[in-house]
């Protein structure tokens, strides 16, 4: 994460050869700035944020932070976007977005089999 930021997004922006975005958000209890590297899942000008936590039984901390404070910043390589995240709760929208997420990062399909929870999706849209 440090290399990603210090290089202006020109380095450290992949994981296992796949692109990563950096999501900056606020901690729901502390109000402190938090940064979460996530796999890059693009849907037009929006990003799909997948709260997989590797298939763990609980949601990642950033999931709760985004519910509380949906205004975020997304760094995608050298580009930085001010965005607002919303939880996907429409089944039809989820059905459209999940295959896009799996195509971007195939491990998501495996993560979904490791947990009894439905892995939440957020859509980050330009503010």
List the helices and strands and how they pair.
Blueprint: H1 2-6, E1 14-15, E2 18-26, E3 33-39, E4 42-43, E5 46-50, H2 61-68, E6 71-76, E7 79-87, H3 91-104, H4 107-114, E8 121-126
Antiparallel strand pairs: 1-2, 2-3, 2-6, 4-5, 5-8, 6-7, 7-8
Number of domains: 1
Q: Quick one: biggest sheet?
A: 8 strands, antiparallel
In CATH, what is the class?
Answer: Mainly Beta
Alpha carbon gap, first and last residue = 24 Å
Tally of contiguous helical segments: 4
CATH superfamily: Electron Transport, Fmn-binding Protein, Chain A
Which stretches are poorly predicted, pLDDT < 50 over at least 5 residues? none
Strand residue content: 35-45%
Task: Compute the CA-based radius of gyration.
Answer: 14 Å
Which architecture does the CATH hierarchy give at level 2?
Answer: Roll
CATH fold topology: Pnp Oxidase, Chain A
Rounded mean pLDDT is: 95
Series of secondary-structure elements, N-terminal to C-terminal: HEEEEEHEEHHE
- Please state the structural category: alpha+beta
What would you call the shape? globular
Q: Would you report the number of β strands?
A: 8
**Percent helix among the residues?**
25-40%
Explain this structure:
- This protein is an alpha+beta fold and 127 residues long.
- It has one domain: Pnp Oxidase, Chain A (Roll).
- It contains four helices and eight strands, in the order H-E-E-E-E-E-H-E-E-H-H-E.
- It has helices spanning 2-6, 61-68, 91-104, 107-114; strands spanning 14-15, 18-26, 33-39, 42-43, 46-50, 71-76, 79-87, 121-126.
- Strands 1, 2, 3, 4, 5, 6, 7 and 8 form an eight-stranded antiparallel beta sheet that branches.
- It is globular, with a radius of gyration of 14 Å.
- The mean pLDDT is 95.
